[in-house]
Amino acid sequence: MNIATPHHAARRPGSPGRARPKLDQKAFERIAAIALADAGLDIAPSKMAMVHTRLARRLRALGLADYEAYCSLIESPEGSDERREMISSLTTNVSHFFREDHHFERLVQEVLPGLRKKIEAGQRVRIWSAGCSNGQEPYTIAMSILENYALPEQADLRILASDIDPKVVAFARRGAYDERMVSGVAAELLEKYFTRQKTGTGTTWVTSQQLKRLISFRELNLLKPWPMQGKFDVIFCRNVVIYFNEETQQELWKNFARILHPGGWLFLGHSERVSEHYLDLLSPAGMTTYRRTDTPGAL
Ligand SMILES: C[S@@+](CC[C@H](N)C(=O)[O-])C[C@H]1O[C@@H](n2cnc3c(N)ncnc32)[C@H](O)[C@@H]1O
Q1: In the structure, what pLDDT confidence band is assigned to residue 8 with cuts at 50, 70 and 90?
Q2: Structural domain total, the chain
Q3: Cα of 31 to ligand 1 centre, how many Å?
Q4: CA 91 to CA 244: how far, in whole Å?
């Protein structure tokens, strides 16, 4: 490349012999600032190598020669689609069926019995899987309910499954998992709630309509205003806030408290805790579990 060539003009995807672009401190900081502003992701400087690994393929896909050009793109108004791609690349989507299963036991043994009257009266019961990744969490919730509770005809119980990443939401909606991904599902549940499809590369297990009917999948950024109208009885937001800084977490505790019914349940991931400041609204109720207190006017 001629040294006078502007960075953004250097679009030669896959040209042989090209050196791998280097991510320097300045570009890392520009990327981290956008990840924080757009998605709340708090990326520590120690994660620079991870950012480099995940974004190198974006640079290749766009045919950009270096991170300077990439930063200019994502900071420009035309870069909004790429900013979404970037967030999608930087989020961690690891999940599995029946992860931290004590929460599903609690759901079956305590939460659902407490909601029984509402369910049987046909009143609105809402469960939210916030940060649902590829769908293992909302499908596990649905299986736990159907396995243990004969939902009456008039039941108005629904699960909202949301994530910022449109790719995982599309995956979750389709509900097609390979053998490795369903390894945590008991054989009898697989037979009952999935259909087996043979593919060229192996077996795919697709979630049944019975499960899908209970769930609405939606793209939703927890940092942006929430479009939901009514309140929730249960929120699972597990292994999501761990990527956020304290300030963003505090904002979320307040918003979760706002959108939960008094007595409503909040389940967090194994290393997440509601900050002390909000414990009067979200009272500890067991392992990484909280309940909305009945404190009218507190918010
Ligand atoms: C590690 S997964 C957790 C999946 C599931 N809750 C579990 O515990 O297995 C974290 C998910 O949070 C999502 N996420 C990250 N930032 C988000 C944001 N600002 N709004 C909504 N979802 C977000 C990611 O896209 C990712 O799918």
Answers
A1: very low
A2: 2
A3: 19
A4: 11
Q: Chain-wide mean pLDDT for the chain?
A: 93
pLDDT over threshold 80, residue 298: no
Identify the residue whose C-alpha is closest to ligand 1 atom 27.
133
Q: For residue 8, how many C-alpha atoms fall within 13 Å in the half-sphere facing its CB?
A: 8
Task: Provide the terminal-to-terminal Cα distance of the chain, rounded to the nearest Å.
Answer: 59
Reading the block at residue 33, the tokens are 């600032």
Letter for the amino acid at 139?
Y
Q: Are residues 216 and 248 in the same domain?
A: yes
* Pair (285, 155) in one structural domain: yes
Domain limits for position 15: 7-90
What percent of the chain has a predicted confidence (pLDDT) above 70?
A: 93
- Which pLDDT value is given to residue 201? 81
Q: Is 54 a catalytic residue?
A: yes
Cβ of residue 165 lying under 6 Å from some atom of ligand 1: yes
Q: What pLDDT was estimated at residue 12?
A: 46
Measured distance CA(82)–CA(67) in Å, rounded:
13
138 found inside a domain? yes
Closest by CA to 97, choosing from 181, 171, 178, is: 181
Does some domain include residue 271? yes
Q: 83 CB less than 6 Å from ligand 1?
A: no
Q: Which two tokens stand for residue 120?
A: 């049987």
Say if residue 111 is in the same domain as residue 258.
yes
Predicted TM-score (pTM) of this structure? 0.92
